What we know:
The chain has two domains: 179 residues, Rossmann fold, CATH 3.40.50; 44 residues, no CATH class. The chain has seven helices and seven strands; from the N terminus they run ββββαβαααββααα. Strand 6 and strand 7 form a beta hairpin. Helix 1 packs across helix 4 and helix 6 packs across helix 7. The longest helix is centred in the last third of the chain and has 21 residues.
Amino acid sequence: MAATLRPEDFDYREFPNRLNLGCGWDVRDGYLNVDFIEEHKPNLLADVLDLPMLPDGHYVEIVAQDVLEHVKRTDVDAALREWRRLMAPGGEIILRVPDVIGAARVLASTTDLDKHVALIQCLYGTQAYTGDYHHVGFTELTLKAALHEAGFVVTDLQRRDEWLFDCVATTREPDAAFDPGPMPFLQLVDQPVVVEAPVSAAASTAGPSGVDRIVSAVGARTPEGARALVQKVWRPLRRLAVKAGVIR
Length: 248
């Protein structure tokens, strides 16, 4: 294992044109491994948000797995712009970040206390040492938007272990418009919510249900996730209205 170098002693030409940023203990052969904690024994001891010792447009691959969540939410855009500066045209960036909707799905699917405690620790970090705190999570939409703003376009996105995203992105054309494309990972449930049947024959001929009228008011393009939320709100309100004699 090569000695860890500080910026003043570092020459990028002596290392591969592949970066492993915030490497932690995952020090990889064939990469320039960067971390700010010396105990991890990276090749370069540096802050991944500020890498002036590395040249523009040089790196064909950048790996940053389990890194962005350690960056303050207000610094995420700056981090991605800095990494874009380093990227060679057509290069790829490989990210792993928390998926907050995936985490919510997992938490809502079990009442096992140990699983809840373990996942909440994963979401917020062990907090056992400096740097092991998590400050931000992502949805499919916010991740794609942040990468686009920094000059990338997502080419592959997969859910990992139910609560993480594995994401691959490449450089984009400067004038490309933001197009999030299909977003299957925004759904909290796998199947559309079934609206409960009318309570009476009269109700069945009275036109659209209360849920349908609310959804229509929200807009014809309301996604199923919003419909599910409307359903959750409508049911308790309807029960209260029936109890109060407002509706039957």
